[in-house]
Amino acid sequence: MPRIALPTPDQVPAESKPTLDAFTKNIGFTPNMMAAFAKSPIAFNSWATLLGSLSKALDVKTRDSIGLAVSEVNGCNYCLTVHSYTAEHMARLPADEIILARKGHATDPKRDAAVQFARKVIETRGKVSDADLKAVRDAGHTDANIMEIIALVAQYSMTNFFNNVFDPEKDFPSVTPAGSI
Known about the structure:
One of its GO terms (molecular function) is peroxiredoxin activity. By secondary structure, the protein is mainly alpha-helical. It is 64% helix and 0% strand.
């Protein structure tokens, strides 16, 4: 059951409205998480700015795979529905790649290294080993790429925590529970 009331369009703070309207236009509807998040213009607009900046990091398949891996570790079912949908429809990842990403892997070696590293970052709270850094570098990622992976982990964790706390009603197709994959 949701733990936050969604604002009606006329209840959305004026400072959040342009950002929320842009998302709604781009997506075709207003996701419940975004409507709820928009209640705090500071948090919502900061997240939207980070999302926009990080949309230029790495490639869409790697970003979505990282989002799936992080959301799986954080147990965020709302985000798993969103990232599964975007991975399929935007990144064009096949179903088996989506499941693999949730498990912290990918068939592409460079993407696999990024996803494994992202999973290590979230699992260890950033206390990765020298071997973890070597593995992601050996796969062809630069230090700038590694910083982008860390920033993506933080961005996805922010929405994971938000959704785990407030549990907005899911508005994307449901996914198989983690224990069943």
